[in-house]
Write a structure and sequence with these properties.
28% of the residues lie in helices and 38% in strands. It has 72 residues and is α+β, with helices and mostly antiparallel strands. The protein has one domain. A four-stranded antiparallel β-sheet has the order 1-2-3-4, covered by helices on one side. The longest helix has 20 residues.
Length: 72
């Protein structure tokens, strides 16, 4: 099994992304590390880069939403 690995820093936090072939597409997910939550959906793309980019984009958006204080 071929596994592509990417490292991204988003909002000052390091993420390790693994991308693996699944049928005719690629699945990106956060690398499973002891002590790190794994309840996150995978992202799919036509290439390893595309799948990783989709996951990175989602993490960036989630980080922005978390960093923005809710207005009352």
């Amino acid at each position: 099994m071929i596994v592509h690995r990417f490292e991204e820093t988003i909002g000052g936090r390091a993420y390790q992304i693994e991308v693996m072939a699944v049928a005719d597409r690629w699945r990106a997910q956060l690398r499973r590390i002891p002590g790190m939550p794994t309840a996150m959906m995978p992202f799919y793309g036509a290439t390893p880069d595309e799948a990783a980019r989709q996951l990175t984009s989602w993490l960036t958006l989630a980080n922005r939403r978390q960093a923005t204080p809710a207005s009352s």
